[in-house]
Amino acid sequence: MSERMICIGCGVTIQTEDETKIGYAPPSALERDPMICQRCFRLKHYNEVQDVSLTDDDFLNILHGIGQADGLVVKIVDIFDFNGSWLPGLHRFVGKKDVLLVGNKVDLLPKSVKHEKVTRWMKQTARELGLQPRDVFLVSANKGDGMKEVMVAIDEYRNGKDVYVVGCTNVGKSTFINRIIKEATGKGNVITTSYFPGTTLDMIEIPLDDGSALYDTPGIINHHQMAHFVDKKDLKVITPKKEIKPKVYQLNEQQTLFFGGLARLDYVSGGRRPFVCYMSNELFIHRTKREHADELYERHLGELLQPPRKSYCDQLPPLVAHHFTLKEPKTDIVFSGLGWVTCHEPGAQVIAYAPKGVGVMLRKSLI
Ligand code: GDP
Hints:
Blueprint: H1 38-46, H2 56-68, E1 71-78, H3 90-94, E2 99-104, H4 115-128, E3 135-138, H5 147-158, E4 162-166, H6 173-185, E5 204-207, E6 213-216, H7 232-238, E7 247-251, E8 255-259, E9 263-269, E10 273-279, E11 285-289, H8 290-300, E12 319-325, E13 330-335, E14 339-344, E15 349-355, E16 360-364
Parallel strand pairs: 1-2, 1-4, 2-3, 4-6
Antiparallel strand pairs: 5-6, 7-10, 8-9, 8-11, 9-15, 10-14, 12-15, 13-14, 13-16
Guanosine-5'-diphosphate (GDP) binds next to helix 6.
Protein backbone atom coordinates (compact mmCIF):
# COMPACT_ATOMS: atom_id res chain seq x y z
CA MET A 1 0.00 0.00 0.00
CA SER A 2 1.53 3.28 -0.99
CA GLU A 3 -0.81 5.70 0.74
CA ARG A 4 -1.20 5.56 4.54
CA MET A 5 -4.79 4.70 5.32
CA ILE A 6 -6.28 5.42 8.70
CA CYS A 7 -9.16 3.67 10.41
CA ILE A 8 -11.90 6.16 11.20
CA GLY A 9 -12.83 4.10 14.26
CA CYS A 10 -9.59 3.90 16.17
CA GLY A 11 -7.03 5.84 14.20
CA VAL A 12 -4.73 2.89 13.51
CA THR A 13 -2.90 2.63 10.19
CA ILE A 14 -4.72 0.07 8.09
CA GLN A 15 -2.82 -2.97 6.79
CA THR A 16 -4.10 -5.88 4.76
CA GLU A 17 -1.28 -8.39 5.32
CA ASP A 18 -1.58 -9.86 8.80
CA GLU A 19 -4.93 -10.69 10.32
CA THR A 20 -3.51 -11.11 13.80
CA LYS A 21 -1.92 -7.66 13.97
CA ILE A 22 -3.58 -4.36 14.68
CA GLY A 23 -5.00 -2.36 11.83
CA TYR A 24 -5.92 -5.38 9.71
CA ALA A 25 -8.70 -4.95 7.19
CA PRO A 26 -9.54 -7.41 4.42
CA PRO A 27 -8.66 -6.00 1.00
CA SER A 28 -12.36 -5.73 0.15
CA ALA A 29 -12.79 -3.28 3.03
CA LEU A 30 -10.50 -0.77 1.36
CA GLU A 31 -13.38 0.25 -0.86
CA ARG A 32 -15.50 1.17 2.13
CA ASP A 33 -15.96 4.80 2.89
CA PRO A 34 -15.18 5.75 5.60
CA MET A 35 -12.46 3.17 6.05
CA ILE A 36 -12.61 1.06 9.17
CA CYS A 37 -10.33 -1.71 10.45
CA GLN A 38 -11.71 -5.17 11.04
CA ARG A 39 -11.50 -4.78 14.77
CA CYS A 40 -13.65 -1.64 14.80
CA PHE A 41 -15.98 -3.18 12.22
CA ARG A 42 -16.61 -6.17 14.46
CA LEU A 43 -17.07 -3.98 17.47
CA LYS A 44 -19.47 -1.72 15.73
CA HIS A 45 -21.60 -4.35 14.04
CA TYR A 46 -21.28 -7.40 16.26
CA ASN A 47 -20.35 -5.79 19.56
CA GLU A 48 -17.32 -8.00 20.02
CA VAL A 49 -13.70 -7.12 20.54
CA GLN A 50 -10.53 -8.61 19.26
CA ASP A 51 -7.65 -8.84 21.60
CA VAL A 52 -5.26 -6.10 20.60
CA SER A 53 -3.30 -4.30 23.21
CA LEU A 54 -0.98 -1.42 23.59
CA THR A 55 2.20 -2.09 25.51
CA ASP A 56 3.28 0.13 28.38
CA ASP A 57 6.28 1.17 26.27
CA ASP A 58 4.06 2.31 23.40
CA PHE A 59 2.05 4.32 25.84
CA LEU A 60 5.14 5.93 27.34
CA ASN A 61 6.17 6.90 23.83
CA ILE A 62 2.83 8.56 23.30
CA LEU A 63 3.08 10.45 26.58
CA HIS A 64 6.59 11.47 25.64
CA GLY A 65 5.27 12.78 22.31
CA ILE A 66 2.65 14.83 24.11
CA GLY A 67 5.33 16.12 26.45
CA GLN A 68 7.26 17.50 23.46
CA ALA A 69 4.23 19.04 21.77
CA ASP A 70 2.76 22.42 22.57
CA GLY A 71 -0.89 22.37 23.52
CA LEU A 72 -3.55 21.74 26.11
CA VAL A 73 -3.89 18.36 27.80
CA VAL A 74 -7.38 17.18 28.71
CA LYS A 75 -7.14 14.27 31.09
CA ILE A 76 -10.24 12.14 31.56
CA VAL A 77 -10.84 9.92 34.56
CA ASP A 78 -13.76 7.69 35.38
CA ILE A 79 -15.31 9.14 38.51
CA PHE A 80 -16.60 5.67 39.39
CA ASP A 81 -13.02 4.37 39.36
CA PHE A 82 -10.98 7.52 39.99
CA ASN A 83 -7.78 5.96 41.23
CA GLY A 84 -7.96 2.95 38.94
CA SER A 85 -8.32 5.19 35.90
CA TRP A 86 -5.66 7.72 36.92
CA LEU A 87 -2.62 7.82 34.64
CA PRO A 88 0.12 7.89 37.24
CA GLY A 89 2.98 8.95 34.95
CA LEU A 90 1.28 11.82 33.17
CA HIS A 91 2.42 14.73 35.35
CA ARG A 92 6.06 13.90 34.63
CA PHE A 93 5.44 14.44 30.92
CA VAL A 94 3.16 17.45 30.81
CA GLY A 95 5.73 19.89 32.16
CA LYS A 96 4.30 23.38 32.22
CA LYS A 97 1.41 22.61 29.89
CA ASP A 98 -2.06 23.38 31.11
CA VAL A 99 -4.08 20.33 32.12
CA LEU A 100 -7.84 20.19 32.46
CA LEU A 101 -9.02 17.30 34.58
CA VAL A 102 -12.39 15.86 33.57
CA GLY A 103 -14.25 13.38 35.74
CA ASN A 104 -16.59 11.44 33.46
CA LYS A 105 -19.69 9.35 34.27
CA VAL A 106 -21.03 11.80 36.85
CA ASP A 107 -24.50 10.44 36.00
CA LEU A 108 -23.57 7.38 38.08
CA LEU A 109 -23.21 9.33 41.32
CA PRO A 110 -26.32 9.65 43.46
CA LYS A 111 -28.22 12.83 42.55
CA SER A 112 -27.92 14.10 46.12
CA VAL A 113 -24.15 14.42 45.80
CA LYS A 114 -22.95 18.02 45.51
CA HIS A 115 -20.78 18.46 42.46
CA GLU A 116 -18.67 21.17 44.08
CA LYS A 117 -17.71 18.74 46.79
CA VAL A 118 -16.61 16.16 44.24
CA THR A 119 -14.58 18.66 42.20
CA ARG A 120 -12.90 19.90 45.38
CA TRP A 121 -12.05 16.31 46.22
CA MET A 122 -10.71 15.77 42.70
CA LYS A 123 -8.49 18.86 42.90
CA GLN A 124 -7.06 17.83 46.23
CA THR A 125 -6.52 14.22 45.19
CA ALA A 126 -4.92 15.30 41.88
CA ARG A 127 -2.47 17.48 43.81
CA GLU A 128 -1.63 14.62 46.15
CA LEU A 129 -0.95 12.49 43.07
CA GLY A 130 1.40 15.12 41.66
CA LEU A 131 -0.82 16.84 39.10
CA GLN A 132 -1.87 20.50 39.26
CA PRO A 133 -4.80 20.87 36.88
CA ARG A 134 -5.79 24.37 35.77
CA ASP A 135 -9.40 23.42 36.24
CA VAL A 136 -11.57 20.45 37.10
CA PHE A 137 -14.89 19.40 35.56
CA LEU A 138 -17.54 16.78 36.03
CA VAL A 139 -19.33 15.52 32.96
CA SER A 140 -21.50 12.79 31.64
CA ALA A 141 -20.21 12.20 28.14
CA ASN A 142 -23.09 9.79 27.59
CA LYS A 143 -25.83 12.19 28.58
CA GLY A 144 -24.10 15.42 27.73
CA ASP A 145 -24.19 16.96 31.22
CA GLY A 146 -21.40 19.46 31.76
CA MET A 147 -20.09 19.10 28.20
CA LYS A 148 -20.80 22.69 27.16
CA GLU A 149 -18.76 24.03 30.09
CA VAL A 150 -15.81 21.79 29.26
CA MET A 151 -15.93 22.72 25.61
CA VAL A 152 -15.89 26.42 26.47
CA ALA A 153 -12.98 25.85 28.86
CA ILE A 154 -11.06 23.82 26.27
CA ASP A 155 -11.46 26.59 23.78
CA GLU A 156 -10.35 29.20 26.27
CA TYR A 157 -7.32 27.37 27.65
CA ARG A 158 -6.04 25.99 24.39
CA ASN A 159 -5.44 29.49 23.16
CA GLY A 160 -5.39 28.49 19.52
CA LYS A 161 -3.18 25.44 20.18
CA ASP A 162 -3.78 21.71 19.77
CA VAL A 163 -5.65 19.65 22.33
CA TYR A 164 -4.55 16.19 23.53
CA VAL A 165 -7.22 14.09 25.14
CA VAL A 166 -5.73 11.38 27.34
CA GLY A 167 -7.18 8.78 29.64
CA CYS A 168 -6.92 5.11 30.42
CA THR A 169 -9.18 2.69 28.58
CA ASN A 170 -12.85 2.61 29.43
CA VAL A 171 -13.02 6.07 31.01
CA GLY A 172 -15.34 7.13 28.19
CA LYS A 173 -12.79 9.03 26.15
CA SER A 174 -14.30 7.99 22.82
CA THR A 175 -17.77 8.92 24.01
CA PHE A 176 -16.43 12.29 25.19
CA ILE A 177 -14.76 13.04 21.86
CA ASN A 178 -17.71 11.76 19.85
CA ARG A 179 -19.87 14.21 21.70
CA ILE A 180 -17.51 17.07 20.99
CA ILE A 181 -17.54 16.11 17.32
CA LYS A 182 -21.31 15.90 17.37
CA GLU A 183 -21.71 19.28 19.05
CA ALA A 184 -19.13 20.85 16.78
CA THR A 185 -20.13 19.30 13.46
CA GLY A 186 -23.50 17.65 13.89
CA LYS A 187 -22.10 14.17 13.12
CA GLY A 188 -22.47 11.45 15.72
CA ASN A 189 -20.67 8.22 16.56
CA VAL A 190 -17.44 8.69 14.68
CA ILE A 191 -15.38 6.72 17.15
CA THR A 192 -16.28 3.27 18.40
CA THR A 193 -17.35 2.82 21.99
CA SER A 194 -17.88 -0.39 23.85
CA TYR A 195 -17.93 -2.07 27.21
CA PHE A 196 -14.45 -3.29 26.63
CA PRO A 197 -11.29 -1.60 27.73
CA GLY A 198 -8.73 -0.93 25.03
CA THR A 199 -10.69 0.11 22.00
CA THR A 200 -8.94 3.30 20.91
CA LEU A 201 -5.55 2.85 19.26
CA ASP A 202 -3.00 5.27 17.88
CA MET A 203 -3.67 9.02 17.83
CA ILE A 204 -6.70 10.13 15.93
CA GLU A 205 -6.79 13.70 14.71
CA ILE A 206 -9.94 15.78 14.72
CA PRO A 207 -9.50 19.11 12.98
CA LEU A 208 -10.69 22.19 14.86
CA ASP A 209 -11.96 25.13 12.85
CA ASP A 210 -8.91 27.36 13.35
CA GLY A 211 -6.39 24.92 11.86
CA SER A 212 -5.46 23.29 15.19
CA ALA A 213 -6.51 19.79 16.05
CA LEU A 214 -7.91 17.73 18.85
CA TYR A 215 -6.05 14.44 19.29
CA ASP A 216 -7.57 11.35 20.77
CA THR A 217 -4.69 9.36 22.23
CA PRO A 218 -4.95 5.62 22.84
CA GLY A 219 -5.93 4.60 26.32
CA ILE A 220 -3.55 2.47 28.30
CA ILE A 221 -5.04 -0.66 29.73
CA ASN A 222 -5.13 -0.56 33.48
CA HIS A 223 -4.45 -4.11 34.52
CA HIS A 224 -5.67 -3.59 38.07
CA GLN A 225 -9.29 -3.05 37.09
CA MET A 226 -11.83 -5.75 37.74
CA ALA A 227 -12.89 -5.52 34.08
CA HIS A 228 -9.91 -7.64 33.07
CA PHE A 229 -10.89 -10.51 35.30
CA VAL A 230 -14.46 -11.11 34.21
CA ASP A 231 -16.14 -12.11 30.97
CA LYS A 232 -18.42 -10.03 28.77
CA LYS A 233 -21.74 -10.85 30.44
CA ASP A 234 -20.41 -10.42 33.95
CA LEU A 235 -18.81 -7.13 32.99
CA LYS A 236 -22.26 -5.86 32.11
CA VAL A 237 -23.46 -6.71 35.60
CA ILE A 238 -20.64 -4.91 37.41
CA THR A 239 -20.55 -1.85 35.14
CA PRO A 240 -23.14 0.59 36.45
CA LYS A 241 -25.28 2.10 33.74
CA LYS A 242 -27.34 4.54 35.76
CA GLU A 243 -27.41 6.41 39.03
CA ILE A 244 -26.02 4.24 41.79
CA LYS A 245 -28.38 3.61 44.67
CA PRO A 246 -26.11 3.25 47.69
CA LYS A 247 -26.87 0.21 49.84
CA VAL A 248 -26.41 0.66 53.57
CA TYR A 249 -25.48 -2.27 55.83
CA GLN A 250 -25.40 -1.91 59.58
CA LEU A 251 -22.70 -4.42 60.38
CA ASN A 252 -21.77 -6.04 63.64
CA GLU A 253 -18.22 -7.12 64.21
CA GLN A 254 -17.40 -10.45 62.58
CA GLN A 255 -19.81 -10.00 59.71
CA THR A 256 -18.93 -10.31 56.05
CA LEU A 257 -20.28 -8.81 52.85
CA PHE A 258 -19.81 -10.61 49.53
CA PHE A 259 -20.01 -8.57 46.34
CA GLY A 260 -21.18 -11.33 44.04
CA GLY A 261 -18.23 -13.70 44.16
CA LEU A 262 -15.78 -11.03 43.00
CA ALA A 263 -14.93 -9.33 46.27
CA ARG A 264 -15.54 -9.62 49.97
CA LEU A 265 -15.34 -7.33 52.99
CA ASP A 266 -14.85 -8.70 56.48
CA TYR A 267 -15.69 -6.39 59.34
CA VAL A 268 -13.31 -7.53 62.06
CA SER A 269 -13.70 -5.06 64.91
CA GLY A 270 -14.92 -1.57 65.83
CA GLY A 271 -18.47 -1.99 67.16
CA ARG A 272 -21.74 -1.84 65.21
CA ARG A 273 -21.56 0.73 62.40
CA PRO A 274 -22.88 1.48 58.91
CA PHE A 275 -21.09 0.51 55.70
CA VAL A 276 -22.40 2.19 52.56
CA CYS A 277 -21.83 0.32 49.30
CA TYR A 278 -21.52 2.23 46.01
CA MET A 279 -21.62 -0.41 43.31
CA SER A 280 -23.65 -1.36 40.27
CA ASN A 281 -27.30 -1.70 41.28
CA GLU A 282 -27.33 -5.09 39.59
CA LEU A 283 -24.51 -6.51 41.67
CA PHE A 284 -25.84 -8.86 44.33
CA ILE A 285 -24.52 -8.20 47.85
CA HIS A 286 -24.74 -11.02 50.35
CA ARG A 287 -24.27 -10.61 54.09
CA THR A 288 -23.14 -13.48 56.28
CA LYS A 289 -21.30 -14.30 59.49
CA ARG A 290 -17.57 -14.15 59.04
CA GLU A 291 -17.11 -17.64 60.45
CA HIS A 292 -19.23 -19.05 57.59
CA ALA A 293 -17.74 -16.92 54.83
CA ASP A 294 -14.95 -19.24 53.62
CA GLU A 295 -17.25 -22.23 53.39
CA LEU A 296 -19.99 -20.21 51.70
CA TYR A 297 -17.55 -18.97 49.10
CA GLU A 298 -16.24 -22.45 48.42
CA ARG A 299 -19.70 -23.96 48.05
CA HIS A 300 -21.62 -21.19 46.34
CA LEU A 301 -19.19 -19.33 44.09
CA GLY A 302 -20.82 -19.04 40.68
CA GLU A 303 -24.30 -19.74 42.09
CA LEU A 304 -25.48 -17.65 45.03
CA LEU A 305 -22.28 -15.64 44.76
CA GLN A 306 -22.12 -14.40 41.20
CA PRO A 307 -20.70 -12.93 39.04
CA PRO A 308 -18.61 -14.80 38.02
CA ARG A 309 -20.99 -17.24 36.42
CA LYS A 310 -20.33 -20.91 37.05
CA SER A 311 -18.55 -21.47 33.76
CA TYR A 312 -16.09 -18.64 34.45
CA CYS A 313 -15.21 -19.43 38.07
CA ASP A 314 -12.03 -21.28 37.06
CA GLN A 315 -10.69 -18.20 35.37
CA LEU A 316 -11.10 -15.94 38.37
CA PRO A 317 -7.81 -15.53 40.26
CA PRO A 318 -8.01 -16.45 43.96
CA LEU A 319 -9.15 -13.73 46.35
CA VAL A 320 -6.33 -11.97 48.19
CA ALA A 321 -6.78 -10.40 51.64
CA HIS A 322 -5.88 -6.74 52.28
CA HIS A 323 -5.87 -5.75 55.97
CA PHE A 324 -6.79 -2.19 56.91
CA THR A 325 -7.33 -0.11 60.03
CA LEU A 326 -9.49 2.90 59.11
CA LYS A 327 -8.24 6.21 60.50
CA GLU A 328 -10.25 8.96 58.79
CA PRO A 329 -13.72 10.10 59.91
CA LYS A 330 -15.06 8.83 56.55
CA THR A 331 -13.06 6.36 54.49
CA ASP A 332 -13.74 4.66 51.17
CA ILE A 333 -12.53 1.11 50.71
CA VAL A 334 -12.09 0.97 46.94
CA PHE A 335 -12.22 -2.16 44.77
CA SER A 336 -10.87 -0.95 41.44
CA GLY A 337 -13.60 -1.01 38.82
CA LEU A 338 -16.18 -2.57 41.10
CA GLY A 339 -16.94 0.45 43.28
CA TRP A 340 -16.34 1.31 46.91
CA VAL A 341 -17.65 0.97 50.45
CA THR A 342 -17.74 4.01 52.72
CA CYS A 343 -17.09 3.45 56.40
CA HIS A 344 -18.03 6.13 58.92
CA GLU A 345 -15.93 6.99 61.98
CA PRO A 346 -12.35 5.94 62.52
CA GLY A 347 -11.17 2.83 64.30
CA ALA A 348 -12.67 -0.04 62.31
CA GLN A 349 -10.55 -3.00 61.33
CA VAL A 350 -11.50 -4.60 58.05
CA ILE A 351 -10.17 -7.14 55.59
CA ALA A 352 -10.96 -6.45 51.95
CA TYR A 353 -10.66 -9.33 49.50
CA ALA A 354 -10.35 -9.04 45.74
CA PRO A 355 -9.04 -11.31 42.99
CA LYS A 356 -5.24 -11.36 42.83
CA GLY A 357 -4.17 -8.42 40.66
CA VAL A 358 -7.21 -6.21 41.29
CA GLY A 359 -6.36 -2.94 43.05
CA VAL A 360 -7.76 -2.44 46.56
CA MET A 361 -7.08 0.78 48.45
CA LEU A 362 -8.28 3.26 51.04
CA ARG A 363 -9.03 6.90 50.31
CA LYS A 364 -10.64 9.87 51.98
CA SER A 365 -14.35 9.59 51.22
CA LEU A 366 -15.43 10.97 47.84
CA ILE A 367 -19.05 11.52 48.82
P1 GDP B 1 -12.76 4.68 26.08
O1 GDP B 1 -12.19 3.30 26.12
O2 GDP B 1 -12.17 5.56 27.12
O3 GDP B 1 -12.73 5.31 24.74
O4 GDP B 1 -14.28 4.55 26.54
P2 GDP B 1 -15.67 4.46 25.72
O5 GDP B 1 -16.07 5.79 25.22
O6 GDP B 1 -15.59 3.32 24.77
O7 GDP B 1 -16.65 4.11 26.94
C1 GDP B 1 -16.41 3.03 27.79
C2 GDP B 1 -17.70 2.63 28.47
O8 GDP B 1 -18.12 3.67 29.35
C3 GDP B 1 -18.86 2.39 27.51
O9 GDP B 1 -19.61 1.31 27.99
C4 GDP B 1 -19.66 3.68 27.57
O10 GDP B 1 -21.02 3.50 27.30
C5 GDP B 1 -19.45 4.08 29.04
N1 GDP B 1 -19.56 5.54 29.22
C6 GDP B 1 -18.95 6.51 28.52
N2 GDP B 1 -19.32 7.72 28.97
C7 GDP B 1 -20.18 7.52 29.99
C8 GDP B 1 -20.93 8.38 30.86
O11 GDP B 1 -20.89 9.61 30.80
N3 GDP B 1 -21.71 7.76 31.79
C9 GDP B 1 -21.80 6.42 31.90
N4 GDP B 1 -22.60 5.91 32.84
N5 GDP B 1 -21.12 5.57 31.10
C10 GDP B 1 -20.33 6.12 30.15
